[in-house]
Amino acid sequence: MSKTVSRALRLLALAALSLAVAGCSGKATTSKPAGASSKPGVSPSTATAATSPTATPAGVNAPLTAPSDIDDIGWLVGRWVANTKEDGCFFEHWLKPAGGTMLGTGAYVPVGGKTYQEGMRFLASKEGLTYIVTPDDRVVKFKAQPSKPGTVRLTADNQFPAIITYTRKGPDSYHVRLAAQDNVESLEFTYVRVGADVDCSSFPSKATP
Fold first, then answer.
1. Distances in Å between the alpha carbon of 175 and those of 22, 76, 93?
2. How many domains does the chain have?
3. Which of 55, 58, 144, 199 is 20 to 30 A from residue 152's alpha carbon, by CA?
């Protein structure tokens, strides 16, 4: 595993931010500055619903707005698993929004390592959406920033990740990019929806070197 991947994974483990997908491979990448072209971290063929009409925002010049209503991110509801040979398995479970809050749980199971778990939640207020994670009894808050329809961009004063970007690819798939403050070092995954009886334990074959 490269030094870039190892360092990014150590930072991810320390932050315990478990963002992931099923049946695809996540990669740590060195991204180009905003506005420059770059290759996706995951092949489009690994996303089961990447060709859904919802994957592309309506209009090239769609206005950038920050999601403010909890229902704006209702498409995250469900169970999502990422299983990669290199990095291990990631799991997320989001409940339906209620009372301006959407609760979730996450876990990261690295290859041959300790399992990290965390609580997650989105809160809606007059100031917009706040994403809160609680790894290792710490509280890390991210604020939703202006973005295109179908995208949620979150930022925080945090070492890694400092920027989290969700991009919807269809009803059963979305892409997530975790980046440092410099927006260069990053991890990228494509999420796929799984059934109620599926979690990281369902993929033992890829959880071994």
1. 11, 11, 16
2. 1
3. 199
- What is the number of other CB atoms lying within 10 angstroms of the CB of residue 1? 10
Amino acid symbol at 25: S
- Please give, one letter per residue, the 3-state secondary structure of 68-117: CCHHHHHHHCEEEEEEECCCEEEEEEECCCECCEEEEEEEEECCCCCCEE
Residue 174 lies in a domain: yes
What lies within 8 Å, CB to CB, of 95 at 6+ separation is 77, 102, 103, 104
pTM: 0.67
Cβ–Cβ < 8 Å for 67, 73: yes
Quick: pLDDT tens for 152-202.
999 999 889 999 999 999 999 888 899 999 988 998 888 889 988 877 777
Has residue 40 been placed in a domain?
no
103 forms bridges with which residues in the sheet? 121
Q: Any idea what the CATH number is for the domain that residue 145 is in?
A: 2.40.128
